[in-house]
Amino acid sequence: IKASVGFLMGTLWFGSGRPPSNEKLFGLMGSIFMLAVTSLMTILAQTIISFPLQRSLLIREYKNGVYGLLPYYVANILSMNIMGVIYTMASVTPIYFMVGLESTTTRFFYFSLTLIGNQAIGNALGLAVGACSADIIEAQNLLVPILTPTMLFSGFVLPENQAPSYFHFLYKLSFFRTSITALAVTELHGLEFSDYSPNPFHLHIFKTGDQILRYMDIDPETNVVHQIGILFAWAALYTVLGYLIIKYFMTAKTS
Q1: Which of 72, 76, 108, 130 sits at a 20 to 30 Å CA gap from 215?
Q2: 163, exposed or middle or buried, with CB in 10 Å at 0-12, 13-18, 19+?
Q3: Which residues of the chain fall short of a pLDDT of 50?
């Protein structure tokens, strides 16, 4: 299913990156944004309901001493992340090459690693939120309130330098901004557009990818490895937080 969705998206934006041009820029940026969204949203939508479905069984087996909470949690998060990597690669690979994104090994590796970081956050955050929810309906109702702020302050919808100053701190707290920054720099840094024209009436105003990054309030010299490291740090934080939340509710239920 993931691969078929990848082929569908790849067909929609087929060739948007070959050759890089202002005319195809909307499709190129749209494909990058949708890859970031789907790598997070699909995983989060699945994992956010997983704990409410398992809660009753887990409480019973935990009370009976069948297994400890930590081994259960570690096994759960590891299995979800392993499957998440497979799903992510099945989805991103056809889109990446069909769209015509930069086909160097390093850029493809960074691009894929960023999306894997996204899905790791989705797994951990989904478990944490699911543990706080009374049932599946409540967990599903929390999905949009969680996703909307982090996407709204990602820098893609509205660059930070164009937002009111009292919202700037929210950009720093958005892990989605980190992933968008890593993906955009990976693809656009050093890119030159074949149809640049100094004539403003042609609307082909971007000569390089670095100009687009600056327009998005992203430093073209941003260290992509550093951004990917921040993504995985967010994933680790949510993983620990998820365990602590589950442990708290399990203790309350079994005491």
Answers
A1: 108
A2: middle
A3: none
Helices marked H in 142-189 — which ranges? 143-152, 168-172, 175-188
Q: Residues 165, 234, 188, 154: is their CA dihedral positive or negative?
A: negative
Assigned token pair, 50? 């997983």
pLDDT (0 to 100) of residue 48: 85
The pLDDT value recorded for residue 225 is 95
What pLDDT score does 200 carry?
63
pLDDT tens by residue, 4-50 = 877 888 888 888 888 888 888 888 888 898 888 888 888 888 888 88
Sign of the Cα torsion 10, 14, 18, 21 reads negative
Q: CA-to-CA distance for 231 and 27, rounded, in angstroms?
A: 25
Cα–Cα dist 177/194, whole Å: 28
Close Cβ partners of 203 (under 8 Å, ≥ 6 residues apart): 22
Q: Provide the CB-side half-sphere exposure for 249 (13 A, CA).
A: 19
